Amino acid sequence: MSIKHRLDTDMKQSMKDREQRTVTCIRMLKSKLLEREVAMRADKGADYRIEDDEAQAAISAYAKQRRDSIESFRQAGRDDLAEAEQAELEVVGGYLPEQLTPEQLEALIRQAIEESGATSVKDLGAVMKLVMPKTKGLADGKAVNQLVRHLLSP
Question: Which range marks the domain in which residue 148 is found?
Answer without folding.
Answer: 102-152
